[in-house]
Design brief:
TIM Barrel, alpha/beta, single chain, 17% strand, two-stranded antiparallel sheet, globular, 11 strands, nine-stranded parallel sheet
């Protein structure tokens, strides 16, 4: 998972996608932001869905998607059609992550409505339903607080059936869990510990049972990933990572505090950590790769991490 708003160029996207395909990774996902979240205002972002459409035409195997698209950026009818277009270009390899949005700065800069969290979560619930129904129903009407569609007919339908995987991002609160249980295929949370995952797994299962959901809701984690094939490589990669994100803290102190937790550490430590997450009920992980020019880390993940969980 790459933070595209940190100045990732088209050539760098191509290099990342090709390396993911060659190294055996399942997919390449990207954030959907327009403003840098970790560094300076000098870094920009190619539009998330325009980038994914282009990558769909230049790749053959990997899954492509957003982690996650704020509902404040696009009308749901537009978003659903955009995802269908990428699904057709890719031959059925696209996934849609949706979230309420959190970064006020980019909303102010681009004229997007932001309001309070309750308003954004309400918009999220309506958008999720509209997107899924537009993908799956021949014709439908919708009348909500934020959107109204009359006799909506969206063609063509997606390549993937019943529809592309829909991922809802959140921290386990009711406003994201309830629409996810009703409409989504996957729930993704961020920067959580195995203990957090165990608790969230229980919450999702309980909500699914109350709602009469007939299949488990996939649970995934997106978290910062820094891995080294040995101590020296781990230290060097951590220093490079700090230089890329512009942090002032001591990289060695940061590494000492976090290694062995999350997905930071040597290959062996990260494999052990992933095992703990799996035992806690995690179904998959999105590896946040902040030093996006470091293709060797992508290759290392493909060589040493992916085979252990294939």
């Amino acid at each position: 998972m790459v933070e595209g708003q940190e100045g990732v160029t088209w050539d760098e996207w191509l290099a990342l996608a090709r390396t993911c395909e060659e190294s055996g990774l399942a997919g390449l996902f990207r954030s959907d932001h327009y403003s840098s979240t970790v560094a300076t205002s000098e870094r920009g972002s190619l539009d998330a869905w325009a980038t994914l459409a282009a990558l769909a035409a230049r790749t053959e195997r990997i899954r492509l998607g957003t982690m996650v698209s704020p509902v404040t950026f696009r009308h749901p009818a537009h978003l659903a059609r955009t995802v269908v277009a990428v699904d057709h270009v890719s031959g059925g390899r696209v996934e849609l992550g949706m979230g309420a949005g959190w970064m006020e700065l980019e909303h102010v800069q681009n004229g997007f409505a932001f309001h309070d969290p309750a308003w954004r979560v309400s918009v999220l619930a309506e958008q999720i339903e509209i997107v899924v129904r537009q993908w799956t129903e021949e014709e439908f009407s919708f009348a909500g607080e934020h959107y109204r569609l009359e006799a909506s007919r969206a063609l063509p339908k997606p390549v993937q059936r019943p529809h592309p995987p829909l991922i809802v991002g959140g921290g386990g609160k009711r406003g994201t869990v309830e629409p996810a249980v009703r409409w989504a295929d996957e729930y993704d949370t961020t920067f959580a510990s195995p203990e957090d995952i165990r608790a969230l797994r229980g919450k999702l299962d309980a909500a699914s049972e109350r709602a009469g959901r007939d299949r488990p809701l996939r649970l995934t984690l997106m978290t910062t990933t820094v891995i080294g094939d040995g101590e020296d490589e781990l230290r060097e990669r951590t220093r490079s990572f700090f230089a890329r994100v512009g942090r002032d803290a001591d990289p060695d102190a940061w590494l000492a505090e976090r290694r062995g937790k999350g997905l930071v550490g040597t290959v062996e430590e990260v494999l052990e950590s992933l095992g703990r997450y799996r035992e806690a009920g995690l179904d998959g992980a999105y590896l946040q790769h902040l030093d996006h020019g470091d293709l060797d880390l992508v290759r290392l993940i493909g060589a040493k991490i992916v085979p252990a969980f294939a």
